[in-house]
Amino acid sequence: ASKGASKARPISQQQLDELSKIASELRSKELTSPERAEAVKRAFVHAWNGYEAAAFGHDEIKPVSNTSADSWQGFGATLIDSLDTMILMGLDDELRRAREFVAKLDFYQDVPASFFEFTIRYVGGLLGAHSLSGDELYLKKATEIADRLMHSFGSASPFPRSTVNLKTTKANYPGWNSGNAILSEIGSCQLEFAYLSHHTQNQSYNNAARNVYSVLHKMTKSTPGLYPVSVSPDASGFGSQHVTLGGLADSFYEYLIKLWILTNGEDDESLEMYTESANSIEEHLVRRVEDLSKRDEEFVFLGELDGKRHTNQMEHLQCFAGGMFALGSFHSRELKPQTNAEQLLVKKRNQHLDLGAQLAESCASLYWYSSSGLAPESIQYTEKSDLVQNGWWTAQTKYMLRPETVESLFVLYRATGEQKYRDWGWEIFLSIEEQCRTPFAYSGLRDATKRKSLDNWDDSMQSFFLAETLKYLYLLFAEDANGMPLLPIDEYVFTTEAHPLKILR
Ligand code: DMJ
Q1: Across residues 25-40, what is the average pLDDT?
Q2: According to its UniProt record, which residues of this chain constitute the active site (predicted)?
Q3: Protein residue with its CA nearest to atom 8 in ligand 1
Q4: Res 198 pLDDT > 60
Q5: Residue 205 in contact with ligand 1 by CB distance below 6 A
Q6: Average pLDDT, integer, range 145-153
Q7: Is the CB of 464 under 6 A from ligand 1?
Q8: Average of per-residue pLDDT across 207-235
Q9: Residue 7: is its pLDDT beyond 60?
Q10: How does strand 181-182 pair with strand 230-231?
Q11: In what order do the strands lie in the sheet with 60-62?
């Protein structure tokens, strides 16, 4: 639903020209990393100012019509998702105003809440802010909302239901999925709930979330480590044989290795699940496609499975996987293996780093080969690459300001120190400036294969743009006063919405 009177006249040609000037000026300069970080920070401030002026307290600004939208029940998704980015960037005045809003929030409302979205954006956003600031208000507010979300868990199922009414506590699995649970929805609360339990000394959050893993792990699968996206609520089986690392599944795989990291290596089962999954992803989902157009390197893409049938398609969402493999590899570097899973992680250290790097480069190349400089939402590809130039083509044209590729570039940079990751991230940032900057904020594109025009803006800026995309870009370039990276990845682990949680030691 879109709210708020339109505060803007239609965007004029003169305004468009001014926007283009900002981007071309940036492009014309050779900037140092700290200067690039400053440019990303200015982009954040531009978007935040627009949000504050037209949509403060709403979930999002609509960045072309300069109005507001409430996709997540209007608790201020952009504001909460942005708190830790503001802390990181030292935006004290903006943060003070946002904190005042958070202090007044009341989650006891008669509205249906998506367990997944509310966990990753609201609970995660508040916990990231707590982790970086130590401010107890954020922990208190995260606990308030988590207590409402806990009603998603019931006695009939080990899995949280998709939607829960925050007041009546009535909860359901989605009707559109024949009443089955969705893998990503039940498997992407484990970091947030583990952190919450640790800091509140209340184990109920972690017990409920963590049990989901044990139950899923025991269920029979056609291929070990590959979990179909649709799960029956009583854990008796899977609703389909569709396996993907994309939508409906992605952050489930991401969280397996990250929970092991967050628990400082204590959670053996999550590492076991990760190494099983990593093996099967390598064996069954990785596809290599010759690049006939520009490079000697092959594209390394991920496909999907329907039973035994392989589908050659990849969503932008799957581009988190480069970072996932690199992160697992990074965390094996000082490991003295004691379990089979730890041994496997150490043994695969170089292989996983190489695979992560290839996936990340392939995802970056989807940006290079697109005329907007920004990657489409999904592609299809052929392994008989003499048929189609490049070997891949666009399936879904939209570009939603998504973070997964820059997230992988960030992890790869931190894991290897190779400058090319910074340069690729900078190119993506410049394209965002050129194509997506509006007078009020940043807008997604309807068609990433076309260059900028008013009609091509989709008038949407989801909260993850400030929570993730700009945060990862900032972290790619920013350094502290001693030239050291901010938020080292051996001290913090990032939730699927890029909220940094300090490793629990
Ligand atoms: C974010 O909300 C999270 O990263 C989620 O895991 C996937 N979708 C968006 C970003 O694309």
Answers
A1: 97
A2: 117, 250, 377, 404
A3: 317
A4: yes
A5: no
A6: 98
A7: yes
A8: 98
A9: no
A10: antiparallel
A11: 2-3, 67-69, 60-62
Task: Look at residue 353 and give its three-state secondary structure.
Answer: helix
Nearest protein CA to atom 10 of ligand 1, as residue: 402
* Band (387; pLDDT cuts 50, 70, 90): low
Contact 118, 155 (CB under 8 A): no
| Tokens coding 420 | 């090319």
| Per-residue pLDDT band at 3 (split at 50, 70, 90) | very low
Model confidence at 290, pLDDT cuts 50, 70, 90, reads confident
Q: Give the separation between CA 115 and CA 483, rounded to whole angstroms.
A: 40
Distance 65 CA to ligand 1 centre (A): 24
- Separation of 290 CA from ligand 1 center, angstroms? 29
* Cβ proximity of 502 and 131 under 8 Å: yes
Average pLDDT, the chain: 96
- pLDDT tens-digit profile of 432-449? 999 999 999 999 999 999
What ranges do the domains of the chain cover? 17-502
* CA distance linking residue 389 with residue 379, whole number of Å: 13
Query: How do strand 67-69 and strand 313-315 relate by DSSP bridges?
Result: unpaired
Angle at 137 between CA 145 and CA 160, to 5 degrees: 20
User: Could you tell me the two tokens for 450?
Assistant: 């076309």
State the Cα–Cα distance between residues 198 and 201, nearest whole angstrom. 5
CA 208 to chain centre: 23
* CA 51 to each of CA 229, 347, 498: distance values in angstroms, whole numbers, following the listed order: 35, 47, 20
Nearest Cα to 398, choosing from 468, 441, 473, 459? 459
CATH architecture, domain defined by 17-502: Alpha/alpha barrel (1.50)
Q: How far apart are CA 455 and CA 474, in angstroms?
A: 29
Neighbours of 395 (CB within 10 A): 14
Instruction: Tell me the whole-structure pTM to 2 decimals.
Output: 0.97
HSE-up (13 A, CA, CB side) for residue 235: 16
Between CA 62 and CA 201 the distance in angstroms is: 40
Return the active site residues: 117, 250, 377, 404
> What is the 320 CA–ligand 1 centroid distance (Å)?
9
Asked if 328 and 278 touch (Cβ cutoff 8 Å), the reply is: yes
- 251: closest CA among 203, 303, 184, 206? 184
Please give the pLDDT value at position 4: 44
Is the beta carbon of 255 within 6 A of some atom in ligand 1?
Answer: no
> Nearest to residue 391, comparing CAs of 279, 313, 480, 331?
313
Give dist(CA 482, CA 460) in Å, integer: 38
Using DSSP's 3-state secondary structure scheme, residue 326 falls into: helix
Interatomic CA distance for residues 322 and 319, integer angstroms: 6
Give the orientation angle of helix 77-89 with respect to helix 33-55, to 10 degrees: 150
> What is the per-residue pLDDT for 201?
98
Amino acid (1-letter code) at residue 328 = G
Distances (CA, A) of 406 to 174, 450, 503: 31, 21, 22
409: phi then psi, degrees, rounded to nearest 5: -65, -40
Give the whole-angstrom CA distance, residue 237 versus residue 248.
17
